[in-house]
Amino acid sequence: MTKDHNQTDKLIEDLQKDWNHLENLPFSKEPSSFFIKEQLQNSQLKKKKAFYKELKLFMVTAVLLLSFLSMIAFLDFQTIVIMEVISIIVAPLIYFILIHKQEGKIFDDRN
Amino acid sequence: MKKKGGIDLTLDNEKRLIKLAKEGNEDAFIDLFQLHYSFLYKYLLKLTLNEEISSDLTQDTMLKCYENLNSFKGDSKFSTWMISIASRLYIDQLRKKKREVNWINQTKIALSRQLTWKANSKGIEWSDTFTDFNNLEAEFRIPILLHHYYGYTYEEIGELLQIKTGTVKSRVHNGIKRLRKEWAAYDERS
């Protein structure tokens, strides 16, 4: 038990020394204010573009789906009911599977 | 052991900068980030052992912090919040690259050359334990580093990484146990 403790202490001590070495190695200085500002503005621009792209995609999909559904509703009401029932059952199932997949993924990596 | 938070920035000054940054003052955020840059970069360097990756991750962390600044409630130090975001970004990056075995191998080779060169020029030699430590999975390395170098408690690490305190304890314990096993193996061989 004491041997284990001593070993652990020595291990930690060694690691701390190495981390201190890393801490004290010379590295490049922090980026300039100008560079950071540019990065922030670029990221905001990218976000804006991504948002509009997604919005466009959403609108197109919504219009397509709505026109498709209204067309079916006029032609065959029974199909609409069947589709609704299927989506009520399948949607929660997909949601549950996705949540289940996400769980336990953290720290699942090996370096 | 390094003191958590790592930098000499008075709490009042930090709070003032955070308040200004939350109000949309970009310069205040830049000041805040520059003050924490070295601390964050060196934390990531201890995990990645690669200057380029650390620098990229530091920038990604900065952008994430900027986007989510309003969610920072001030319960912890700003540097702790940054470490929390950086750790999760690092984990995400590892997950993304998980299948690209070649990428990881190449990085490892590049990293050891870079670090060896710098260490040699300073006359530094890394311990065997350090090599073993860096071969551990991130799930062990992060809590060990945060606990044994930065002095965070198990509870704080749990909050930081959004895992249970018990899980943090067992990861630190098991990580150290694996390092001890490696040590024992060296002893047997020599």
Structure notes:
Chain A: This is YxlC family protein. Chain A: It comes from Niallia hominis. Chain A: The chain crosses the membrane at residues 55-74, 80-98. Chain A: Keywords: Membrane, Transmembrane, Transmembrane helix. The complex is a heterodimer of chains A (111) and B (190). Chain A has 111 residues and is mostly helical. In chain A, 83% of the residues lie in helices and 0% in strands. Chain A contains 3 helices and no strands. The relative contact order of chain A is 0.03. Chain B is built from 9 helices and no strands. Helices cover 77% and strands 0% of the residues of chain B. With 190 residues, chain B is mainly alpha-helical. Chain B folds into 2 domains: 1-103, Rna Polymerase Sigma Factor, Chain: A (Orthogonal Bundle), CATH 1.10.1740; 127-190, Winged helix-like DNA-binding domain superfamily/Winged helix DNA-binding domain (Arc Repressor Mutant, subunit A). The interface between A and B is large, with 34 and 53 residues.
CATH architecture of the largest domain in chain B: Orthogonal Bundle
Report the span from N to C terminus of chain B. 31 Å
Total tally of structural domains of chain B:
2
Tell me what portion of residues of chain B adopts beta-strand conformation.
under 5%
* Average of the residue pLDDT scores of chain B: 84
| Poorly predicted sequence stretches spanning 5 or more consecutive residues of chain B | 106-111
Tally of helical segments of chain B = 9
Tell me, what's the shape of chain A? elongated
Oligomer: heterodimer
Average per-residue pLDDT of chain A, rounded, comes to: 83
Q: How many beta-strand elements of chain B?
A: 0
What pattern of helices and strands is seen along the backbone of chain B? HHHHHHHHH
Total strand segments of chain A = 0
Structural class of the helix and strand makeup of chain A? mainly alpha
Largest sheet of chain A: none
Detail the poorly predicted runs of chain A. 106-111
What is the share of helical residues of chain B? over 70%
What's the Cα radius of gyration of chain B? Answer: 18 Å
Q: Sheet with the most strands of chain B? A: none
Pfam families (chain A): DUF5345
Organism (chain A): Niallia hominis
InterPro entries (chain A): DUF5345 (IPR035238)
Transmembrane segments (chain A): 55-74, 80-98
